[in-house]
Amino acid sequence: WYYSRYCAADNQTAMVDERSNYWMPVDQYIGGIEHAILHLLYSRFWSKVMRDLGLVTYDEPFKKLLTQGMVLNHIFSRRTDKGGIEYYAPDEIRPQLDEGGQIIAATLREDNQPVDYGGIGTMSKSKRNGIDPQPLIDEYGADTARLFMMFAAPPEQTLEWSETGVEGAFRFLKRLWRQTYEHVQTGAAPSLAVDQLDKNQKALRTKLHQTIEKVTDDIGRRFTFNTAVAACMELLNDLSKAEDKSDQGRAVTQESLEAVVLMLSPIVPHITHVLWNLLGHETVAIDNAWPQVDSAALVQDTVELVVQVNGKLRGKIEVANDLPKDEIEKAALTDENVQRFVADKTVRKVIVVPGRLVNIVVG
Fold first, then answer.
1. 71-122, what's its fold?
2. Domain 302-362 classification at class level
3. Which residue intervals of 88-165 are DSSP H helices?
4. What phi and psi values does residue 232 have, to the nearest 5 degrees?
5. Is 65 in contact with 23 (CB distance < 8 Å)?
6. pLDDT digit string, tens, across residues 257-315
């Protein structure tokens, strides 16, 4: 019941007081799977006891639960002369791999004698299979190490430790730095004038605010940091493909880079701090408000529809977002590429799935 006591720590005459009812229950409980039968069970029990005694008014102590996955690594050991087990760190081992890259045997680097391979297991101090992040930090920097770990897997899934993705995380941060630097080198970006944007600029800004909406939900509700990072990577790719050096093109780029920097600042705080200042701000990135979604930017004037003939992709058409169904059918049937597959056939049915596709059934 200590969590309730935190709310009334200075009360010397009672376990808790009305402040506990004000602050409780806890918004988010995060813990490993072992907590489900230990701490979580006991704390819920005590909360119900305190409720029955009239000490608190809440029924459950925690609103939401996130059970984090465990990080796994290889386990190596050897029997000692006294019958005990001595464990060795993975970096002390020279593994032997089969054709598929799986460990089939291992020797200790120190004496070149064989050790037992215990498979993959939860990282623990007793088994000495934990990983010191310092070598990663020394070689790539703390931001790369943080990004790599956040991008590796959703927090609730078990993760088998592998450093194969570190280079990819490092390359992404270098690309973010390069794109921001190249943008800044062209001078201060003009103010954004939404009514002056062309079709491609509107599409890019729509993508930006779709990304803000997704990342906000991924981090704030779902805790899926890996998909939040992936969404920022995708936006940065679209931004690099645009290569729009016009005034409003640069204004959209400025807005996009600022949003990406702020959205990544909880994950890679060091590089985003510098990039935020590079983008012309004197404040600290992590002290700024989270980017807000412009709902007007999410409304698309046109939409691209896939056109299928008998279930096979035969073309794509771009139509007005509010185009009537019969006009969509007409646009699909008159598409030049689609005509090659329907010209000498009887159209038996046209199925329109709004916002997604048109399927033409011919016979």
1. Rubrerythrin, domain 2 (2.20.28)
2. alpha beta
3. 134-140, 142-152
4. -65, -40
5. no
6. 999 999 999 999 999 999 999 999 999 999 999 999 999 999 888 889 999 999 999 99
Q: H or E element: which one contains 236?
A: helix 225-242
Return the closest-CA partner of residue 242 out of 195, 278, 292, 199. 199
Cα gap 68→76, rounded to integer Å: 25
CA atoms within 13 A on the CB side of 244: 23
Is 61:43 a contact under the CB 8 Å cutoff? Answer: yes
**Unique residue bearing structure tokens 């709902």:** 295
CA-CA distance, 288 to 276, in Å (whole number)? 10
| Domain over 166-298 is classified CATH 3.40.50.150 | no
Q: The whole model's pTM is what?
A: 0.82
Whether the Cβ atoms of residue 95 and residue 88 lie closer than 8 Å to each other: no
> Would you give the DSSP letter of residue 294?
-
Query: Which pLDDT tens digit goes with each residue over 60-92?
Result: 999 999 998 889 999 999 999 999 999 999 999
User: How confident is the prediction for the chain on average, in pLDDT?
Assistant: 94
Identical fold for domains 166-298 and 302-362, yes or no, is: no
Rounded Cα gap, residues 125 and 104, in angstroms: 24
CA 160 from centroid of its chain's CA atoms:
18
